Amino acid sequence: MTITIESSADLYERLTSHLRLRPEQIAFVVADEIRSGSVRRLAARDLLLLQPRGRAHDDWHILLDDGAQKRVLDWAFNQEGWLIEAHSHIGWLGDPARMSHTDLVGLESWVPHVRWRLQRRGYAALVFGNRTFDGIGWCGPLKSAPQLVAAWTTPHHTYSATQDTLSLPEDTGA
């Protein structure tokens, strides 16, 4: 099963403008799930843009402090629906977009915890490069394998995911 995300052009533009301000920028989106055959369609409806305060940040990684984590989880809990994390790899690391090994290691511990805190709701993680994006999502059992995000669609455009993340070799140090 694959995942597609749908939103207004305005929400997509606000998200990508924020993410392209600097490397390792982060934001969160809440979306409602619409089951459609073998595709999970997520209708994005709200956006939380995180500023540099409340997180450790450099051009190589991002780490939310306890206060920022609480803010995100409280916001998501009250919103209901899927929580979608989006961060940026812009500059030389950007395209084609894919999660780094460091991203995947962080998600391995973060996703089950967040899904448990949000009562097993779905969670997706996206990475945006200069011109491309990629993503994976989890639903079902807390320890379930990730599913591919196939695309993000606005009323006038479909942005296809690179789908490179799950092809990342295990021993990559990136």
The major beta sheet can be summarized as: 7 strands, mixed, barrel
Question: Which ranges are low-confidence, i.e. pLDDT below 50, for 5 or more consecutive residues?
Answer: 54-59
The CATH architecture term is 3-Layer(aba) Sandwich
What's the arrangement of strands in the largest beta sheet? 1-3-2-6-7-8-9
Count of discrete domains: 1
Mean pLDDT figure: 87
Tell me, what is the CATH class? Answer: Alpha Beta
Tell me the structural class.
Answer: alpha/beta
Radius of gyration, CA atoms, in whole angstroms: 15 Å
**Inertia-based shape:** globular
Per DSSP, the total helix count is 3
Number of separate strands: 10
Instruction: Please report the distance between the alpha carbons of the first and last residues.
Output: 27 Å
Strand content: 35-45%
**CATH topology tier name:** Cytidine Deaminase, domain 2
Q: Considering DSSP H and I runs of 4 or more, what fraction of the residues is helical? A: 10-25%
Helix and strand string, N-terminal first? EHEEEEHEHEEEE
Plain-language structure description:
The protein is of the alpha/beta class. The protein has one domain: Cytidine Deaminase, domain 2, CATH 3.40.140. 24% of the residues lie in helices and 37% in strands. The chain is built from 3 helices and 10 strands. The protein has a 7-stranded mixed barrel with strand order 1-3-2-6-7-8-9. Strands 4-5 form a two-stranded antiparallel sheet. A hairpin with a 2-residue loop joins strand 9 and strand 10 (157-160). Mean pLDDT is 87; it is low at 54-59.
